[in-house]
């Protein structure tokens, strides 16, 4: 009596299991790779409740980042300024402008403005702003050219590989303390001279300030 199904169908369950396993592995790998900050967050630019221009304040007016983000040298986080900080200027400058209505209301009532957070690392990552800023790492290294942004967007990947690139060679990223918030600063317009000065300064700075090239897991994952 001939078989109803060909012999190869005996292997069909195994083929389905193996094929499903390969497909699941490929799907997980794809999500793991492409849903990292490098691909998923770079370019993220939410609409904010108030159209605040860093290009105007930090760029055109030259305001120091620390005037608004006053905790950045003392705390693990970079604080969003209170509305009262805005009103230090705007109680005279553009004090009746409709664009600042929510700022005035917030300052009067104490109700915070619902800003949309843009830069954020996963909960399992420990990052301390003060440690980096006080060790010569400029805002621009992680946040990009903030002083040129009309609306802030996510400019750098902030992925593990991005952080490790700096941790492996901090001398290439550090700068003088008084240039931390000067986002357009460079050693020299000449790229060759720029690189030479950066190398010489960076190596000495790392030694003098005991900047550690931490690459162990516990440095960031605690």
Q: What low-confidence regions span 5 or more consecutive residues with pLDDT below 50? A: none
Please tell me what the overall shape is. Answer: extended
**Average pLDDT level:** 91
Number of helical segments with 4 or more residues: 10
Task: Classify the helix fraction into a percent range.
Answer: 40-55%
Share of residues in strands: under 5%
Class from helix and strand fractions: mainly alpha
Radius of gyration: 25 Å
Largest sheet, if any? none
Distance between the termini: 68 Å
Number of strands: 0
Q: What is the N-to-C succession of helices and strands?
A: HHHHHHHHHH
Distinctive features:
222 residues, mainly alpha, 10 helices, 0% strand
Can you give a write-up of this model?
Helices cover 41% and strands 0% of the residues. The protein is mainly alpha-helical. It has a domain at 37-45 and 120-219. Helix 5 packs across helix 6. The chain is extended. The N and C termini lie far apart (68 Å). The mean pLDDT is 91.
What's the arrangement of secondary structure elements?
Elements: H1 12-34, H2 37-40, H3 54-60, H4 65-68, H5 83-90, H6 101-109, H7 129-133, H8 139-143, H9 160-168, H10 191-208
Helix pairs in contact: 5-6
């Amino acid at each position: 009596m001939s078989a109803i199904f060909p012999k190869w169908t005996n292997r069909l369950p195994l083929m389905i299991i193996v094929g499903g396993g390969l497909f699941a592995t490929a799907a997980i790998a794809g999500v793991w790779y492409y849903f990292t900050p490098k691909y998923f967050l770079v370019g993220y630019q939410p609409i904010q409740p108030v159209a605040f221009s860093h290009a105007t304040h930090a760029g055109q007016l030259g305001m120091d980042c620390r005037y608004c983000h006053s905790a950045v040298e003392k705390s693990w986080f970079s604080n969003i300024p209170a509305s009262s900080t805005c009103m230090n200027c705007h109680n005279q400058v553009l004090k009746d402008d409709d664009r600042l209505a929510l700022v005035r209301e917030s300052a009067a009532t104490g109700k915070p403005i619902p800003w949309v957070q843009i830069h954020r690392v996963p909960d399992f990552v420990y990052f301390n702003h003060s440690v980096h800023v006080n060790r010569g790492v400029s805002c621009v290294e992680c946040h990009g050219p903030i002083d040129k942004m009309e609306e802030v967007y996510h400019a750098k990947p902030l992925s593990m590989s991005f952080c490790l690139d700096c941790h492996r060679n901090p001398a290439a990223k550090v700068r003088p303390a008084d240039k931390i918030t000067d986002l357009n600063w460079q050693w020299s317009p000449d790229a060759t001279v720029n690189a030479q000065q950066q190398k010489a300064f960076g190596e000495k700075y790392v030694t003098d300030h005991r900047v550690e090239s931490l690459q162990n897991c516990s440095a960031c994952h605690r």
